[in-house]
Amino acid sequence: MTRPGLFARAGLLALFAALGTLGPGPIFSQTPDWGLDSGGRALTAVFPLAGEEPEMIRRFHRGIMDSVAALGKYAPREAAVPSGTRIPTDMPPLPSLAGGARYALTGGVYPGDSFGDYYLQLWLWDMAADTMIYTDDLVYSDINDAMESLPGLVEWLFSHIHERVIEEEPGVWPDPLFILGLRAGLAQRWYVKPDERSPGASALNLEGGVSGALRLNSLFSLQLELLLTGDAMVYRGLDLDGSQYVMANRKYTSLSLEIPVLVKMNFRVDRVRISPLAGLYTALPLGASRYRKSNEGEESSYSWSFSVPLGLTAGIEGAMPSGPGVVFAGLRYGLDFGTITINDNRDTSFRRHTLSLYLGYEFGFFEGRN
To answer: What is the structure's pLDDT at 237?
Structure first.
């Protein structure tokens, strides 16, 4: 016995194969923002089955709903079809009847080629592209055996859905026009007097501040920073106290504002940005330099200044996207061009060498892509 509409459907199948599936194989569909339930499952409209076997149709309809739900990724719901409306099983259903579902199932129950045989044919549709995903049928003579095989048929149909979530390509970095950052870290300093060949004192200090960078092109950016930093220079040695020498510490502490102007090169590899940098900085004293001698315990204050308030700095930074911005870390070396002079009774002077290690976070504005 010839199945109803078999030759008519054959032409449609060839057309759908050319447009959507290239034969009975998988299609690729982009997951959209619509067609999902609150749990993120794709809504699937299950249409009434065609045919003249109401009891079989009733059992199959209920079994199809349960089988789709059992797949976990899909949320079945009955299509809102007005009573008496004929639904073509071999044509894409109207989107208005699918009610915003991502996928749709149509089908029918028909007599088979042999007496007492029947077959259930199901069609799975992609409502986003209005194309067929896959069709197959189940031949049976016992409805109970068919119900046992139904979940496998449904799973087979849905296995031809290959969802592809469009993600940002690896190595594609935001390239904003302007970057605002915050940083804090440690600055190891060595203090060298004019008559010394090697540092006579050293100290570990805190520093931190803000930065703003302007993109010049995809490789270079110009960065300006405002950094608050401290100095704590301690000289230890013999000091004449009356008629005898005693061990004493002479400690000078001060605050300054450094303003580096840097040129950065930005190399991006996957999720990592490597940025060599170099530039000049100017340094401004903030307040007086405080002095304390250990065997006196009294604190004094002296004015101080830079003979040349400029310096050279260079280093390297590494960065990685994290949350709404970028986390970065850096290592930097700095050298004063001139000397610092403290106007005490000794006219203490020295030049600073600095090695800084810092961590920060930055935000981009006016985004581009690189």
So the answer is: 64
Q: Specify whether the CB–CB gap between 291 and 301 falls below 8 A.
A: yes
Work out the end-to-end distance of the chain between its first and last CA atoms, rounded to an integer number of angstroms. 64
Predicted confidence (pLDDT) per residue in 287-339, tens digit: 999 988 876 667 889 999 999 999 999 999 999 998 889 999 999 999 999 99
Tokens, residue 160: 């031809």
User: Distance (Å, rounded) from C-alpha 370 to C-alpha 171?
Assistant: 9
CB 334, CB 313: distance < 8 Å:
yes
DSSP 200: S
Residue 249 zone, left/alpha/beta (φ > 0; ψ -120 to 50; rest): beta
Strands (E), 242-271: 244-265, 267-269
Residue ranges of alpha helices (H) inside 225-272 are none
CA 273 to chain centroid: 14
137, 121 contact by CB (below 8 A): yes
CA distance 120 to 45: 18
Q: What is the pLDDT of residues 263-280, one digit of tens each?
A: 999 998 888 999 999 999
- In this structure, which amino acid lies at residue 349? S
- With bands split at pLDDT 50, 70 and 90, how would you rate the model's confidence at 97? confident
Q: What mean pLDDT, rounded, does the chain reach?
A: 84
CA angle 291, 295, 296 (to 5 degrees): 60
Query: What are φ and ψ of residue 102, in 5° steps?
Result: -75, -35
Q: Are strands 42-46 and 272-293 parallel, antiparallel or unpaired?
A: unpaired
With contact defined as beta carbons under 8 Å apart, do 251 and 224 qualify?
no
Please, what is the angle between helix 143-158 and helix 54-70, to 10°? 40
